[in-house]
Amino acid sequence: QVQLVESGGGLVQAGGSLRLSCAASGRTLSSYVMGWFRQAPGKEREFVARISWSGGSTYYADSVKGRFTISRDNAKNTVYLQMNSLKSEDTAVYYCAARRETKVQYDYWGQGTQVTVSS
113: which of 2, 9, 56, 98 fits an S-S bond (Cβ 3.0–4.6 Å)? Predict the structure, then answer.
């Protein structure tokens, strides 16, 4: 079992930056693909970014490409999402999730952290 806890959300002005963290407990994350998702009010949850277990491969949604960076520190069992040049449309609850490399569905989810970007 993996427990995920996000932190780092908050209120920021458009153009600003935030760094989200996702700390894991219960099991080492080193064998898991980690992803970040977000859900804005009234919208479906959407994919933001993912990173391979080694950190050598990353993938981003077009809407955040070039502005967000996902990274991981397996020694700290933590995944990060650096968000720069934030826009009002980035306002959402951000969730981290974990899955085995061989699976498609994410098995473990955090409780989410709110990011609000004021214009």
Answer: 9
d(CA 6, CA 4): 7
Question: Residue 92 class from Cβ within 10 Å (0-12 exposed, 13-18 middle, 19+ buried)?
Answer: buried
**Measured distance CA(111)–CA(65) in Å, rounded:** 24
CA distance 104 to 16: 33
Distance CA 13, CA 70 (A): 21
Tokens 């709110």, located at residue: 114
For residues 19 and 81, is the Cβ–Cβ distance under 8 A?
A: yes
Gap between the Cα atoms of 107 and 1, Å rounded: 9
Which amino acid is it at 38?
A: R
Token code pair at residue 117: 């970007």
For residue range 33-49, what is the model confidence (pLDDT) as tens digits? 999 999 999 999 999 99
pLDDT tens, 85-96? 999 999 999 999
